[in-house]
Amino acid sequence: MEFPLIPERCALLVNDLEEKMVCPSSPFYIPTAVDALVNLLPLVDFCRRRGIPTLFALIGSEQTREKGAARIELPEGAVIDLSLCRLADRLGSHPDDFVFVKTWRSGCIGDVSVDYLRQRNRDTVIVAGTTLQFGCDTTVREAAKLGFQVAALSDCCASRPIADQGWGEVTDDEVIKVFFSTWKKAFARVMTAGEALGELDARAGG
Question: Which domains, ranges and CATH numbers included, belong to the chain?
Answer without folding.
Answer: 7-203 (3.40.50.850)
